[in-house]
């Protein structure tokens, strides 16, 4: 099975229109277009009944102490943790593409609605739900896709891994509100194949990709 994209070139920089945040000379970070990227796929194995799409940033700082601090830098050698940006489930076996901007077209304060999604698919919450939990103006359940917004002072360019899983079940056996971790646990015995595309993104003008 092969995952393809007209929006992201594997191993190269992600355009700011697919990000939650973009560089800003005055404030360091400004809200961006937050479009979900285009994806298509081919070669799904026999017996595929549905697909799941996940976006993971494995480079989120494990400690928040230095994050977005004017006089500090998040060191490149700091231990890193996962930050999940999207989980889309119940993609029918007949579907072979997701269009750019089909599931997200802008930043939605307090989060987009869910779990229902276009074309009878479902989306879980992403990790901005936890990130904004103590922010009065932004807290809420962030369903669906919300793109990159790494710390503006991070010495490391973050990787954003988009992975498509082909499953032998039509529906992920979860109800109501669910996270990417929930999905990965229940689909593990049902994965027939997977493929990934990884893009890079930074908000630190000192870091080149």
What does this structure look like?
By secondary structure, the chain is mainly beta. Helices cover 6% and strands 33% of the residues. The strands form 3 sheets. A 6-stranded antiparallel beta sheet has the order 8-9-6-5-10-11, with helices on one face. The mean pLDDT is 97.
Residue share in helices? under 10%
Query: Biggest sheet: strands side by side, in what order?
Result: 8-9-6-5-10-11
Q: What is the total tally of β strands?
A: 11
Cα radius of gyration in angstroms: 17 Å
Amino- and carboxy-terminal Cα gap: 28 Å
Shape: globular
Enumerate the spans where pLDDT stays under 50 for 5 or more consecutive residues. Answer: none
Q: In DSSP terms, counting alpha (H) and pi (I) runs of 4 or more, how many helices?
A: 2
Describe the sheet with the most strands.
6 strands, antiparallel
Strand content: 25-35%
Q: Mean of the pLDDT scores?
A: 97
Helix and strand run: EEEEEEEEEHEHE
Distinctive features:
single chain, 209 residues, mainly beta, six-stranded antiparallel sheet, three-stranded antiparallel sheet, 6% helix, 33% strand
Topology:
Elements: E1 2-4, E2 21-24, E3 28-31, E4 39-42, E5 50-61, E6 80-92, E7 97-98, E8 116-117, E9 121-123, H1 128-131, E10 158-167, H2 180-187, E11 191-201
Antiparallel strand pairs: 1-4, 2-3, 4-7, 5-6, 5-10, 6-9, 8-9, 10-11
């Amino acid at each position: 099975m092969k995952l393809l994209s007209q929006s992201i070139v594997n191993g190269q920089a992600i355009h700011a229109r697919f990000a939650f945040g973009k560089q800003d000379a005055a404030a360091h970070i400004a809200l961006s277009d937050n479009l979900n990227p285009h994806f298509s796929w081919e070669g799904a194995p026999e017996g595929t009944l549905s697909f799941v799409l996940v976006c993971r940033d494995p480079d989120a700082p494990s400690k928040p102490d230095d994050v977005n601090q004017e006089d500090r830098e998040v060191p490149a050698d700091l231990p890193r943790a996962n930050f999940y940006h999207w989980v889309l489930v119940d993609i029918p076996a007949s579907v072979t593409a997701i269009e750019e901007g089909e599931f997200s077209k802008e930043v939605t304060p307090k989060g987009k609605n869910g779990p229902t999604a276009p074309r009878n698919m479902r989306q879980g919450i992403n990790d901005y739900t936890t990130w904004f939990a103590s922010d009065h103006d932004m807290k809420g359940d962030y369903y669906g896709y919300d793109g990159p917004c790494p710390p503006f002072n991070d010495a490391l360019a973050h990787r954003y891994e988009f992975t498509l899983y082909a499953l032998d079940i039509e529906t992920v056996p979860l109800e109501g509100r669910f996270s990417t971790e929930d999905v990965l646990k229940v689909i593990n015995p049902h994965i027939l194949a997977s493929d990934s595309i990884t893009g890079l993104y930074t908000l630190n003008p000192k870091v080149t990709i």
